[in-house]
Amino acid sequence: xxxxxxxxxxxxxxxxxxxxxxxxxxxxxxxxxxxxxxxxxxxxxxxxxxxxxxxxxxxxxxxxxxxxxxxxxxxxxxxxxxxxxxxxxxxxxxxxxxxxxxxxxxxxxxxxxxxxxxxxxxxxxxxxxxxxxxxxxxxxx
Length: 141
Hints:
This protein has 141 residues and is mostly helical. It contains eight helices and no strands. Helix 1 packs parallel to helix 5 (50-57) and helix 3 runs antiparallel to helix 4 (35-46). The longest helix has 12 residues, at 35-46.
C-alpha cells in the first residue's frame, strides 16, 4: 500500500503500451477528442486508478471521475496538453487529438534539406507590407 502511494505522489506519466495507442477504440476517442473514452481506455489497458491518472495529468481525482462518467468534457487546450503529457502520448496520437507533435522529426520535408528553417543569420526583409484591401491614399494638392 505504501509503495502505491509513493508512485501516485511522484506524478510520473501513466504509460500505455504502444499497441494500446493503435487500437481502434483509442484512435476513435482521440479523433473525437472524447477524453472520457480515452481515460477509460487508459484504465482498461494499464489498470491505473483514477487517482493515479489524476496525479499524472495534473487534475483532481474527482474531476477525472466526472470526465470518465461523461458528466464533464474537456475543451481547454491547456488541459489537452496536460493530459497528453501525463499519458506520455506518442506524436501520432497527439496529432489525432489535434495537438502538435513533441518530436516533429517526421516533418523535415517542410524545408530544404540541410538548411535550418529559422536561422538568426537570415535577416527578415525590411520592406513595408502593402495591404491590397486598403483604400489608396490621396495626397493633398
